[in-house]
Amino acid sequence: MQPGTATLTPDGTRIALAGDWVLACAPALAAQVEQLQRRAAATPVFDASGIDRLDTAGASLLLQLGGETGSADRFAGLGARQRALLDTVVRAMHTRPARPRAPNGVIELFANAGKAVETLWRDLAQLVGFIGLILASLAQSIVRPQRWRVTSLFFHIEQTGLNAVPIVALLSFLVGAVVAFLGATILRDFGATVFTVELISYSFLREFGVLLTAIMIAGRSGSAFTAQIGSMKAREEVDAIRTMGLSPVDVLVLPRVLALLISMPLLSFLAMVAGIVGGAVVCIYTLDISPGMFVHRLNEMTQVKHFWVGMAKAPLFAFLIAAIGCLEGFKVSGSAESVGAHTTSSVVQSIFVVILVDALAAIFFMEIGW
Amino acid sequence: MSETVIEVRGLRNQFGAQVVHENLDLDVRRGEIIGVVGGSGSGKSVLLRSIIGLNRPRAGRVQLFGEDMGSLGGERRAAIEQRCGVLFQNGALFSSLTVAENVAVPLVERHGLPRTLIDRLAALKIGLAGLPPEAGAKFPSELSGGMVKRAALARALALDPDILFLDEPTAGLDPIGAAAFDQLILTLRDSLGLTVFLITHDLDTLYTICDRVAVLANKRVLINAPLAEVERQDEPWIRDYFQGPRGRAAEHAAVAAKRN
Question: Where in the numbering of this chain does the ABC transporter domain appear (chain B) (predicted)?
Fold first, then answer.
């Protein structure tokens, strides 16, 4: 390969072109072209007879050298093929659309903040509307057993409930053990290690059991709902359901919502048990609390109402996670990228909403004295 | 015109127990437009993937520009691959990038090209593919089916390939768009000196732009010849394909168009 060259005659009126004007030589050629443009006379004459190979990149550079106005006629000595190529490039060459002016940083900051607030508001309104839609569909189909989708319901119970058992149990067990360790370390200074039992039972019954489950389910099942419905939306399957006279909410959303409403309390219960067992294991092995004493103290000191406080939140969280997951799925448009974006958004929103509602519930239960 | 740029010999492809190609031979000469036809599942796309190296054949060899792709590694293989532009069936445009950025990707990956030149070349390819300049700023999801194909063609042309591989370029286009795309390929071949390897079901495309037609059936290339010769074959599948009502209509249309 003979790298392309452009040589200016001493009087600055004639430019001789030679070698290969191809993409591989483009960086060097671009530099030469820029240099020559500054040095050459206003309308130099081109002698292109020395050009060996020419591709579109080279042709584009030739035209740049010719001052954009160029037609192929200005380049004398081109072969017929090269001439045809240059003609094609001339026809295809657009004046590049001007790059949009860099916007003012401060204005953009306010604009983005405004957009974010508007999106937040619209998302919230949409969520409330969607929850209403789910409740209405639920009320309609509950009185008509022939519209119940039992197979789908059990499939989703298996997916979201049964299959989540190992991970929920293991993680709750571990967190229970960690809480017990923390409690034991701090309470030892006060000689009150026996209160570790209450620490574990209160925290797991009231908060951690259901909260850990909800976070796990949001990441595991909420995201799956979004991805499933989202990819159906992207491939127009949701539209197909609609054209068959079926309601996508009935077919896709209700089984998922109901499945989560059933699985979540069960999983929360499991998480409570696993967490307390985890704590108990730590108590038994590192503190001088025997299994019998642990159970006794649990019975004595912990009221059942704490269990109900925790369990009451499970269906609420389940409903919110399922609603957000399904709604984000329906928001997917077209591309695979959109499925990914909405799946992320679904998980973030669910976890945010779950923790927010949990905080509100904590205040509520405190105020009513539970 | 006689130099062979693609040479496939004794190709065998197999997925599980299903043999797709058995002892398949194919030659493609420089500067021609070759149309590959065959029934659904006859392995047209697999053949394309084997030639461009996305699919490793069980046996046989594929030579591009006289180099054996199977034994070639590293930079020399990459150099050959850069001489091939591929238009995938559904465009395979990167959905997170605009059209102009999509076209610029192969250029950006070549170090040393100044940004202004990249932008210029990307705009040029978008023009060559017959898209309006403002299409460059759009995302693939905002384009119609025909524009997606053109944008993908622009990206395939980015590195000035010698061979252009097209997988069903006119599928899903309306007749006007399909005819325009055919003409575009013809123009590009003539002006850029491309060799075009074209998989198609579109009989109009076969009759209008293909120099030769390769018929894929019974796990091999039955015949690879100019269309007139292919039509005369007495193979049942070929007869059904070209002498069926659609084949005859396309032939009449092509003959009428040539007469005008």
Answer: 6-243
Rg (CA), chain B: 18
Provide the domain limits for residue A264. 121-367
Chain B residues closer than 8 Å to A335 by CB? 95, 140-141
The number of domains in chain A is: 2
The verdict on residue A106 lying in a domain is no
- d(CA B212, CA B205) in angstroms, rounded, equals 12
For A2-52, what is each residue's pLDDT tens digit? 788 878 777 777 888 888 888 888 888 888 888 887 776 667 778 888 888
Starting at the edge strand found earlier in the chain, the sheet holding A5-8 runs A5-8, A14-21, A45-54, A75-76
Query: How close does chain B come to A263, measured CA to CA in Å?
Result: 37
Can you give the residue ranges of every domain in chain B? 93-160
From residue A171, give the alpha-carbon distance in Å to each of A271, A316, B161: 8, 22, 55
Pick from A345-349, B58-62, B139-143, B171-175: least confident: B171-175
Pick from B95, B123, B160: which is nearest to A335 by CB? B95
Say if residue A159 is in the same domain as residue A235. Answer: yes
Out of A46, A74, A92, a domain closes at: A92
What is chain A's Cα-based Rg? Answer: 35
Tell me if ipTM is over 0.95. Answer: no
Which residues, including other chains, have CB under 8 Å from residue B1's CB and lie 6 or more apart?
B29, B30, B31, B32
Place of tokens 């789910």: A134
Most confident of A33-42, A58-67, A199-208, B1-10: A199-208
- Note whether A187 and A240 are same-domain residues: yes
- Could you tell me if residue A107 is inside a domain? no
CA-based nearest residue to B94, from B157, B141, B49, B146: B141
Q: Which of A77, A92, A107 is the last residue of a domain?
A: A92
pLDDT in tens, A225-238: 999 999 999 888 88
| Contact call for residues A191 and A312 (beta carbons, < 8 A) | no
Host H or E run for residue A24 = none
Candidate from A92, A336, A338 with C-beta closest to B128: A92
Alpha-carbon distance A160 to A326, whole Å?
A: 14
> Do A321 and A189 fall within a single domain?
yes
* Residue B1 confidence (pLDDT): 46
What are the Cα distances from residue B226, in Å, to A285, B185, B204? 85, 18, 15
Do A12 and A149 sit in the same domain of this protein?
A: no
Count CA within 13 A, CB hemisphere, residue A22: 15
Residue B170: its H or E element = none
Q: Are A215 and A75 in the same domain? A: no
